[in-house]
Structure formats: C-alpha cells, structure tokens
Fold:
Amino acid sequence: MSVESREHVQRSELLSQLRIERDGQPPRPRSRVRWLAVIAVALVLAAGGVWYALGRMAVPTVRTAVARDAGPSAGPASVLDATGYVTARRQATVSAKITGKVTEVLIEEGQSVREGDVLARLEDTDARAQLALARAQLAAARAQLAELRAQLAQAERDYTRQQELARRELVSAQSLDAALAQRDMVRARLGAAGEQVTVAEQSVRVAQVQLDNTVIRAPFGGVIVAKAAQPGEVVSPMSAGGFTRTGIGTIVDMDSLEIQVEVNESFINRVTAGQPVEAMLNAYPDWKIPASVIAIIPSADRSKATVKVRIAVQSKDSRIVPDMGIRVAFLSTQPATAAAPAGSVLVPAETVRGEGAAAVVFVYADGKIERRPVTLGRITGGQREILTGVRPGERVVLSPPPSLDHGARVRLADKS
Structure:
C-alpha cells in the first residue's frame, strides 16, 4: 500500500472517532466513570458536613465566673454552708365549716387580706329559714311566759283574798287550799315556760351560727397564694370524693417567713442558736440577706443523716416568697481581720469540685478546659477562697458537669 493510501486510512479512523453518537446508543465507559466520581465527591462533602455539625453539637456549654483577688478580710468568715428553702410558719388552707354550694368567691392569687375579711360565701337559703323558725319559736315562748306571769299575779291575789276571808271564817279551809294549789301550779308552769324561752334563745344562737358558717372569713392576715374554688362548686370540711372541694384558698402570713436548712449531723456542732447567718436566694445570688439561727430542731433524719435548723430572716422583703431555694453561710462569731495570703482568689463555691486534697476547679482558656488541683481557704458568703491553683482574672466553670475533664472543648453560655 502506498503512503497516500495509508494516510487516507488514518484520516478515516480519526474522523470516525470524532463522530457524534446517535440517540439510543449506549454511553461510553469513560462518561460513566466521570459521573461516579462526581457522586462520590458529593457524598464525601455531605458526610464531612454532618460530622462537623455533630462535632459542634457535642461541645458542651458552660457558665463561668471570674476569679477575684481575695484582698484583706474584714468581716466574719463562714464556718459552714448549707442549702434549704424559705418556709412559712403561719400558712392555712381555709375551708368551710359546713358542706354547701359556693355562691361567691372574693379572692384572687396575690391579694392581701386582713383577719376577718370575707373570702367566700355559701348558699344560705336553708340557714336563713332555720334562723327565722328559731326566732318565731322564741317569740312564742316569750308570749307564753308573759301569759303565765299574768296568771301567777292573779293567783297570788286570789290566794291572799282567800287567806283574809279564812281569818274571818267566811270561807271554808277547802277554798283556801284550792287557791294555794292554783297559785303553786301557775308558779310551776311559769318556771317551765322560762326554761322554754332559754331553749328557744339557744336555738336562735345555733341557727345564727349556722348562717354565719356560710360566710368564710380569713383566720389571719396575709397573702392569698392559691384560689381553690369557684362559684357553683360544692365545698366540704371533709373530702367527700367526686367534685367536692375541701378548701377555698390558701393564705400565707408573710411576716412568718423563715428559712429551714438541713445540716449534715457531722457538722451540726458548728451551729448554735443566735449565730449570725448570711443568706442568698437562688433567684438573687448577689443579694446578701442578714439572718440568724432561731433553733436547732432536736431530731435527726436517720435516712439522710441530717438535722434541721430554723433561721430567722432579719429583713422583710417582697422578693422573699415561700418555697424559694436559698443558700446560707453560718458565720463565725469572731471576725477575721487578718489579710488573705498573697495571690489567693475568691470564686463562687459551686465552682469547686471535691474537698481537701481532692479539691479541683476547671479553668476556661482559649475554648478548652484545664483541670487544676487547688488549695482551699475560708468560705465567706457563698464565696470560696482558693489559696493556690488559680490566678486573679481567670475564668472558672460554674457547677462543672461530671463528664467535664481536662482538655475538653467547651462553649461559653455567658460573658460574666
């Protein structure tokens, strides 16, 4: 074959490779590989995005506080910390003394009431009818009493007249005896009528009490914290099942609020009656409330190994309400005037995990956590002194979760 023939054949083969494929012809293997590569890359990118999102979700969020320089201590130091609740010594769920249907409720939650104020009224139709009947019976008994008094006066005169005639021997002894018997009989009837009047008066008093029982009044002054009944409901002093209510509302005497805490029996020797206390509500952690120990209840809880302590709040404030959580620091009676060691800091007590040689805190720095052993100092009003291990200005984690450990990555929930 000549050279020109071979060149013609090669051109024909090249043109056949450049020919466009018609519809219905299968794709070349090279195009299929290209599409599979694109799908694989997309799957890898999607998996990476999911992994990144899960990694961010797994990072825990923590709250921190700044360690402050302890400086000199001029106030009394805390000898013991405890937690408890605000309680009311005078609290009552007011109920009716009788069973009846409520016709009117005059209270709402948060309303202040004074002793004797009307809280609610019950249906009183039957009680009023009973009172009217008792008053009518009393009026009848009094009328009968008046009639017998008139009869007795007449019998007295008849008997006197018969005595005068008997002295003159103008009447027989039988007539004199009859007049005497008549007088004594009227006297006896008059005494019985007097007793009937007394019974009728007592019946009126009972009916009046029953009517008064349909009006429910406040036993003492305070604040309504719960409204338990509505008009149309039936209330009863005892639970009768069904839809019967046993109370109208709950009153709390806000002047009787105090604090109750449970102290581990191993440390109860640090608490004495009259000891000064500094209290902090969980809702207002920066508010220091002066208080003092009322009494140590002479009974221990065997299951928890604790003893209850009653604490009086020395400043009354509307922010203090029953059942609020509160932390207290029992203060030493001897004020600490010595300067704190150089380099010591104060941190919130809840930042410290463990006690003694096992005490540690978790310091936040550059998105990671450092677990540091610390040397503990005094406790002052919910603040714990750290003698070594933390420097002023460093951030420490508040209430570190049990899973938190050295080197863990975290996110801040605040910038306090």
User: Anything to note?
Assistant: The longest helix spans residues 125-167. The mean pLDDT is 83.
